[in-house]
Amino acid sequence: MDKNSKRRGFPPWIRCRLSCETSVRSTLATLERLSLNTVCQSAHCPNIAECFSRKTATFLILGNVCTRSCRFCAVRNGHAEPPDADEPERVARAVDELGLRHAVITSVTRDDLPDGGAYQFAETIRTIGALRKYVTIEVLVPDFRGDAHPIESVIDSRPDVFAHNIETVPRLHGGVRPGADYDRSLAVLEVAGRRNSEILTKSGIMVGMGESWDEVVGVMKDLRSVRCDVFTIGQYLSPSKDHYQVAEFVPPSVFEKYATVGGELGFKHVASGPLVRSSYMADAVFLSAGGGDLKHGVRSESAEYR
């Protein structure tokens, strides 16, 4: 177990893998030189060293300041700057320089923009596809305030995976995600799937926030009702004492049971484990779900999801 986990009183199954420091520094240098944000850094992801050592990162577009104040999230909130017109090109260059075969793009929520930032997503997808032919692209989007038009514009730019996280069970939603809405998040995935059924849809939640087994299974059923293809589930880790606090540490055996239930419900892939995050090992999850033969190229070569 890493020293930080031991000091913070985490159970033994909450551990981060050691990584090659040289590879981590190389990835950081690329990101810094191109002035790019990542959710890995902004959200304090526990897998950051492992992923950076594999030269992968989840790009955070539209700045690093969110217009909402979700109680689970470490990303700063406040007044956001206007979108950077050069950002799509810089993201595409990073994808090319890092040699990515599967690129993951997410953003802060931008309720201040008329389209919620959909144009920047679409432009980033198109720019990556133009620069690097053999790459698959996954986007993890906000809810765009439930407006179907921005969702459809992102879908029409042809990502290979369209993800939007439900984050938690309905009973806890108001306390965890002020400004968001459970049914609205389901509708985002439904609109995306209806617009183009070839594109994989993906969602995820965190557990350990006080939810029950039946509530989690209920979320899975709701996601399948809107034909969500891929489901991720991981342990919630509070970023600070000022954020929503952890109610329990869910043992690995329960995550295994969630994965079994998800398979029985018909998800194409379920990634379930304490340190699973929406974008963790996203390339392997994409392949396991049967992706790879869409607009942006070929099946990537990836380590098996673990």
Report what the structure shows:
The chain is an alpha/beta fold and 306 residues long. The chain has a single domain (19-288), classed as TIM Barrel. The protein has helices spanning 3-7, 21-33, 39-42, 48-53, 87-98, 118-131, 148-156, 170-176, 182-195, 213-225, 252-265, 282-288; strands at residues 37-38, 58-61, 65-66, 76-77, 102-107, 136-140, 161-163, 200-207, 230-235, 269-272. The chain has an 8-stranded mixed β-sheet with strand order 1-2-5-6-7-8-9-10, sandwiched between helices. A two-stranded parallel sheet has the order 3-4. α6 (118-131) links the parallel β5 and β6. The chain is globular, with a radius of gyration of 18 Å. The two termini are 17 Å apart. Mean pLDDT is 89; it is low at 1-7 and 294-306.
List the helices and strands and how they pair.
Elements: H1 3-7, H2 21-33, E1 37-38, H3 39-42, H4 48-53, E2 58-61, E3 65-66, E4 76-77, H5 87-98, E5 102-107, H6 118-131, E6 136-140, H7 148-156, E7 161-163, H8 170-176, H9 182-195, E8 200-207, H10 213-225, E9 230-235, H11 252-265, E10 269-272, H12 282-288
Parallel strand pairs: 2-5, 3-4, 5-6, 6-7, 7-8, 8-9, 9-10
Antiparallel strand pairs: 1-2
